[in-house]
Amino acid sequence: MPYYAPKNFHLTNRRNFLKGGLIAGAGALFATRFAGAADAPAAAPLMAVPQPSAPPSGAPTRVALTNGDNRTDNVFRGLKSLEKEIARSIGDRRVVIKPNNVSPTNQLASSHADALEGILEFLKSIGKLDHAIIAESALANTMQSFENFGYPRLAERYKVKLVDLDQESFQTILAFSESDAMPHPVRVSNVLADQKNNFIISACMLKTHDRAVATLSLKNIVLGAPLKLPNPNSTGGRGRVGNDKPILHGGGAHGININLAMLAPLLHPSLSVIDGFQGMEGNGPLSGTAVDHRVCVVSNDFVAADAVGASLMGIAPTDIGYLSYLSKAKIGEIDPGKMEILGEPIEKLAKKYVLSASAQNQFKWKEPAHVAGNS
């Protein structure tokens, strides 16, 4: 018999979803976690915390949308417009800035130092810079990518630490693959999973993607959390590295979107900062072409931020699988008409990005899925 996934992933109770998902026992997708580390002590089990930050009762979700000719200023102004709620949300947690460094050499594909400077300057202005870190598990060499993109200059200026997540502790979770409808272990960063003690800022860009239509703030955290570690099944010794990142792509359009939605309770941004000063269209997230856009999106609600980011690219939020799934679960807001947009209207700043050549296959998440090889 073919395996058919639901046409739309639907959860009716927000509280149950936040406690559940892939992490704590959503029936079909299991959930077992184990603490571990790459030459680090085992970490205590971590609990997901509610997300996204809810606005006051009856108030619309607030999203800051800035534009201008200075990337750093765009980011800073967007953050400043939400200063009170951001400062309150951070509390006494350590700030972790997670860039999106897909390539160690292609700046267009990776978070720009000028955008990070806007975040760091804002944190300094509200007194939340102490103990802040910039942390990534880059597709290639993390510290080399930091060097190539000028991050050490920022680290020195703002007295923050640059962290290679592959050298930090991890836990093992289970992810779904539509290729066999089986659970697969994935080793993910404890730094990004520990949202009780860490305030996670997703510092990403507007980019098209070859699997999920667009690269936005949630994907930067969920698909950035798997690590590159010694492969426990390799006979080549500890020098043989296993990259767990591809596992969360889930074997297709259904798998990647299910994983993004189901892992959101554990791995999500506390704050989304989407830099669209120079976007990427076409063959993103690595080999696309530049779009001169000069915008920035900021919100405590990562679902709303991603919906606005998609809209700015000319993509309907309902065409992005994980946003549709989360919306049906009453997690966050994807309708810009129900948001309070601080700044210019979306329609004034939107551009039509050329999508990946594989876009039609990516939209197949809307159709029933079957496991390859079954009949």
Task: Report on this structure.
The protein is globular and about 50 Å long. It has one domain. The protein contains 14 helices and 14 strands. The chain starts with 13 loop residues before the first helix and ends in a 13-residue tail after the last helix. With 375 residues, it is of the alpha/beta class. Residues 1-35, 37-50 and 234-239 have low confidence and may be disordered. α3 packs parallel to α5 (113-125). Strands 2, 3, 4, 5, 8, 9, 12, 13 and 14 form a nine-stranded mixed sheet that branches.
Structure in a nutshell:
By secondary structure, the protein is an alpha/beta fold.
Q: Topology of this protein?
A:
Elements: H1 14-19, H2 21-24, E1 34-37, E2 61-67, H3 71-80, H4 83-90, E3 94-99, H5 113-125, E4 133-136, H6 142-148, H7 151-158, E5 161-164, E6 169-177, E7 182-189, H8 190-193, E8 198-208, E9 214-215, H9 217-222, E10 228-230, E11 241-243, H10 253-262, E12 271-281, E13 289-299, H11 302-312, H12 321-328, E14 339-343, H13 346-349, H14 359-362
Parallel strand pairs: 2-14, 3-4, 3-8, 4-5, 8-12
Antiparallel strand pairs: 1-6, 2-13, 6-7, 8-9, 10-11, 12-13
Helix pairs in contact: 3-5, 10-12
Please count the helical segments: 14
What is the number of E strands?
A: 14
Between the first and last Cα atoms, what is the distance in angstroms?
5 Å
Can you tell me the residue ranges where pLDDT is under 50 for at least 5 consecutive residues? 1-35, 37-50, 234-239
User: How much helicity do the residues have?
Assistant: 25-40%
Evaluate the radius of gyration.
19 Å
Largest sheet: 9 strands, mixed
Shape: globular
Average pLDDT, rounded to a whole number, is 85
**Can you write the helix and strand succession as a string?**
HHEEHHEHEHHEEEHEEHEEHEEHHEHH
Overall number of structural domains: 1
By helix and strand content, what is the structural category?
A: alpha/beta
Estimate what percentage of residues fall within beta strands. Answer: 15-25%
Oligomer: single chain
